[in-house]
């Protein structure tokens, strides 16, 4: 019986979203360019613009968002822009400018965060033979806005956002939630993602059949890192892995 069940093969694919299915990093660059254009049209000194944007990005990278503190993610990120303007220029900025920077950045990022036609058709093909799950870390509002912008509906049997749960990837609990909600077993699934510390580590902890690392920059594995079962430069190479797992 055990052998029969083991021979069933992969029936389900769990995907990460950011920088796996959508080019979040690329969308972020385009969004920052838009804010630079906006700032050029204001009284802000041109020599300050790059520093303001770099300062915002640093704050974004080190952001720790706790919804229980009573602020929305929009408010927190408007404040990042306010502080970036303030710290770079050494004066208190117009709060309206910080708000304008934020919504320009956010709107542009969401507009360009779509599945490429190639990724969309890959998912449409895969869903004929596999149960597709989307498992993304991040805060609830930001991630659901991205999911809506990428028009994910209909492509996935299950969409899970880390911020909606007590623990995010790589925690075992969020993977267990996925398996139970989708009615699949860990050994039926592969985990596909660009982050070694969350996607690959999480997949290994959860006991999935195989982990697939999306390594678009062709980086070498950092010392002491977990080792993915497969490494591909793009999600568009996933069929090569699936063939090997048959
Ligand atoms: Mg990612």
From TrEMBL:
The keyword RNA-binding does not apply. GO terms for molecular function: N-acylneuraminate-9-phosphatase activity. InterPro entries: HAD-like_hydrolase (IPR051400), HAD-like_sf (IPR036412), HAD-SF_hydro_IA (IPR006439), HAD-SF_hydro_IA_CTE7 (IPR011950), HAD_2 (IPR041492), HAD_sf (IPR023214). It holds the Pfam family HAD_2. Its cofactor is Mg(2+). Keywords: Hydrolase, Magnesium. Coiled coil: none annotated. It comes from the Eukaryota. The keyword Metal-binding does not apply. One of its GO terms (biological process) is N-acetylneuraminate biosynthetic process. NCBIfam families: CTE7, HAD-SF-IA-v1. This is N-acetylneuraminic acid phosphatase. It comes from Cirrhinus molitorella.
């Amino acid at each position: 019986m055990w052998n029969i069940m083991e021979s069933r093969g992969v029936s389900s694919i769990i995907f990460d979203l950011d920088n796996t299915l959508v080019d979040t990093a690329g969308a972020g660059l385009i969004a920052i360019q838009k804010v630079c254009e906006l700032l050029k049209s204001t009284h802000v000194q041109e020599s300050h613009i790059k520093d303001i944007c770099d300062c915002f990005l640093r704050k974004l990278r080190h952001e720790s968002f706790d919804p229980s503190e009573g602020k929305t993610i929009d408010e927190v990120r408007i404040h990042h822009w306010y502080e970036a303007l303030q710290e770079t220029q050494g004066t208190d900025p117009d709060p309206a400018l910080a708000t304008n920077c934020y919504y320009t950045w956010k709107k542009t990022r969401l507009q360009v965060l779509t599945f490429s036609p190639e990724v969309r058709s890959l998912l449409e093909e895969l869903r004929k033979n596999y149960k597709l799950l989307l498992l993304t870390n991040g805060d609830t509002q930001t991630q659901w806005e991205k999911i809506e912008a990428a028009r994910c509906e209909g492509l996935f049997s299950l969409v899970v956002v880390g911020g909606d749960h007590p623990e995010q990837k790589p925690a075992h609990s969020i993977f267990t939630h996925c398996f139970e909600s989708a009615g699949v077993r860990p050994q039926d699934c592969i985990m596909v993602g660009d982050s070694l510390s969350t996607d690959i580590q999480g997949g290994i902890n959860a006991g999935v059949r195989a982990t697939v690392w999306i390594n678009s920059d062709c980086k070498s594995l950092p010392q002491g890192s977990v080792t993915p079962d497969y490494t591909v430069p793009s999600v568009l190479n996933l069929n090569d892995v699936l063939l090997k797992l048959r």
